[in-house]
Write a structure and sequence with these properties.
- By secondary structure, the protein is an alpha+beta fold.
- Helices cover about 55% and strands about 10% of the residues.
- The protein has 26 helices and 16 strands.
- The strands form four sheets. Strands 1-2-3-4-5 form a five-stranded antiparallel sheet.
- Helix 3 crosses helix 4 (about 80-95), helix 5 (about 105-135) packs across helix 9 and helix 17 crosses helix 19 (about 420-435).
Length: about 600
């Protein structure tokens, strides 16, 4: 299928898709104040904050900040990929998907993948039936019951039992027409070390199927029922099973994650299964690998709020510290639950129950607090050198806080914890901040400036969406650094559209922008209902002036400080240059009628 043909198909589906009709299939919409409203289907709320803009084909929730076009809405409601949402809508509209003739190599790969997935499905059925229907499975049923795993959860996760046999599974699969090479390719069988043939990889174990986001079984984990090692045994990575790109339970947790606007990440299968059995369903688990950027990307499709709840032993805490920067860099809000008494989530929820665990989640620590707590717990506070070392480790963490008042507050807390003089810690923080400053001309915005920058950026983006010609003037007048990060991403997207001589659209925005930026664009475009061209232009012009004012004030303050520094150092020539520069900036401020 040619790219042009695919683009034509997507545009055709988009043109025939009425967002009001699509959303109404799922939720009831009420017309009020010039727009349609509903209680958001993606999080729990009593007051309607979800709205659609039929003329723009966009939706936005002012509560959970989900937003996008009609295809994004379908993908969230159906828990499918964006392109699968397009295909689903095309099917509903009776629009045929364009196709092309596949190459022999592509057909072969497709057939091989289907065969592997078929084997995994049959294997899951074999293990599940072995658990729930056989006498041999009684031992495993008792084990699960003792751990509080209900029959409903057994069925939900399709838990199973691998018989204590060398070939029970392989015999069954061979009888269905699969050969040893295919069984080895899935990892459910192991090659014999001596002689020909294969044998069952899992024996006398409780079996946990591992599915991809679409619910296809791609691997298995096996937990030993008696004493022995390894405690957990996983099928190896294969063409369909790549641990770094999968999270256990995500296929079953997406609706709960959307509803709670939060994902809880645990380390083990049994942690996730036990929590689900207790009624906490917005939980996923890593598969014995470190938390990766790919994992963060997966979760960010559904929420920006991620809570890490790893084991409270040293290994779990180290894993938490490694995962924190990965999640931060992905742009998510990250919190940490410290499970008390050295327990893991599975043990805790079985002993204390759902309400107690939910209380832990409610009181999860912000990532800064956890990092500080982690370092302080390992600091040698009894020695001067130990306290000094701890302070040096803590100062970089304060840089991750955007609020200057909070930074000072944390300095005081650190001083108290390390039994240091507050003024000494504050002095060290100021030195660290100065030595690590970026040197940019734009100062750290004040709280009021933050609000102005947010609102002004929104107004400029709305104008640029309708009139791309203003973009050149905006970028020539204002440095990109003045805009918040998500607005910079949208402006970069606009630039790319301009370079390609095309107008930005909800379809290309969904493809090019991150989930956060796409939702922010939806918020901006579904703003005031009665925005006329005149009002949009007026807001744009006022916003350019407001941001220009912030930039010039920052530049003026920098020039003023330089003038003072050169005056103190006796460098009269440099002082005159800096002073002249401050006068020129002041004149430009006056031209903008800014006092």
């Amino acid at each position: 299928m040619a790219i042009a043909e695919l683009d034509e198909f997507v545009n055709k589906v988009r043109e025939r898709s009425d967002i009001y009709a699509v959303v109404s299939r799922y939720i009831a919409l009420n017309f009020k104040g010039g727009r349609y409203w509903a209680c958001c289907p993606f999080h729990n709320e009593k007051t309607a904050s979800f709205t659609i803009s039929p003329d723009k084909g966009m939706f936005y929730c002012f509560g959970c900040h989900q937003g996008g076009n009609v295809f994004k809405f379908i993908s969230l409601m159906e828990n499918i990929s964006y392109f699968d949402a397009i295909k689903l809508q095309a099917e509903r509209l009776g629009i045929a998907l364009p196709s092309r003739k596949k190459t022999p190599a592509e057909l072969k790969l497709e057939q091989e993948r289907k065969s592997l997935l078929n084997i995994m499905t049959l294997t899951q059925e074999f293990y599940h039936n072995s658990l729930v229907k056989t006498v041999a499975g009684e031992k495993c049923r008792k084990y699960l019951a003792a751990r509080g795993i209900t029959s409903g959860v057994i069925d939900k996760f399709k838990l199973g039992y691998a018989p204590d046999s060398w070939d029970a599974l392989t015999k069954t699969l061979r009888s269905r027409g699969f050969d040893d090479k295919q069984l080895l390719a899935t990892g459910v069988a192991h090659d014999k070390q001596s002689g020909a043939g294969v044998y069952d990889r899992m024996r006398d174990r409780m079996i946990i199927p591992i599915a991809d986001i679409n619910g296809n079984v791609v691997g298995f984990g096996g937990r030993i029922l008696n004493e022995g090692e390894p405690k957990y045994l996983n099928t190896p990575e294969t063409a369909i099973f790549i641990k770094g790109k999968l999270l256990f339970g995500l296929d079953k947790a997406t609706r709960a994650i959307n509803a709670e606007n939060c994902a809880v990440v645990v380390e083990g299968y049994m942690d996730a299964i036990s929590l689900a059995s207790a009624g906490i369903e917005n939980v996923v688990a890593t598969l014995g690998t470190a938390f990766s950027a790919e994992h963060a990307k997966l979760l960010m499709r559904y929420t920006r709020r991620i809570i890490l709840c790893y084991d409270s032993d040293e290994a779990g805490q180290r894993a938490t510290m490694r995962a924190l920067p990965i999640i931060q860099n992905a742009g998510a809000e990250v919190f940490v639950v410290a499970v008390p008494d050295g327990k893991d989530p599975d043990e805790f929820v079985r002993k204390h129950g759902k309400a107690a665990f939910e209380n832990l989640l409610k009181n999860a620590l912000p990532f800064v607090d956890y990092k500080i707590q982690y370092i302080l717990a390992r600091a040698d506070v009894l020695s001067t050198s130990g306290r000094s070392k701890a302070l040096r480790s803590l100062l970089p963490i304060l840089s991750e806080i955007n609020d200057a008042v909070l930074q000072i507050d944390y300095c005081r807390k650190i001083a108290a914890a390390l039994v240091l003089n507050e003024s000494a810690v504050l002095d060290e923080w100021r030195k660290f901040s100065k030595s690590n400053s970026s040197g940019k001309t734009i100062k750290k915005p004040t709280v009021r400036d933050d609000d102005i920058i947010q609102r002004s950026g929104s107004a400029i983006i709305k104008k640029a969406w309708h009139d791309g010609d203003v973009l050149s003037y905006v970028l020539a007048t204002l440095p990109k650094e003045i805009f918040i990060e998500v607005h910079r991403e949208i402006l970069n997207y606009f630039e790319k559209c301009r370079e390609m001589e095309k107008h930005p659209s909800d379809i290309s925005a969904a493809e090019e922008l991150s989930a956060e930026a796409n939702a922010e664009l939806s918020r901006i475009l579904t703003g005031e209902v009665n925005d006329s061209d005149e009002l949009i232009s007026m807001a744009y012009e006022n916003s350019i002036k407001a941001l220009r004012r912030i930039v010039l004030k920052a530049q003026y303050e920098k020039a003023r400080r330089e003038t003072e520094e050169y005056l103190k150092s006796g460098d009269e020539a440099a002082m005159r240059v800096a002073f002249q520069k401050s006068l020129e900036i002041q004149k430009e401020l006056n031209k903008l009628m800014i006092k």
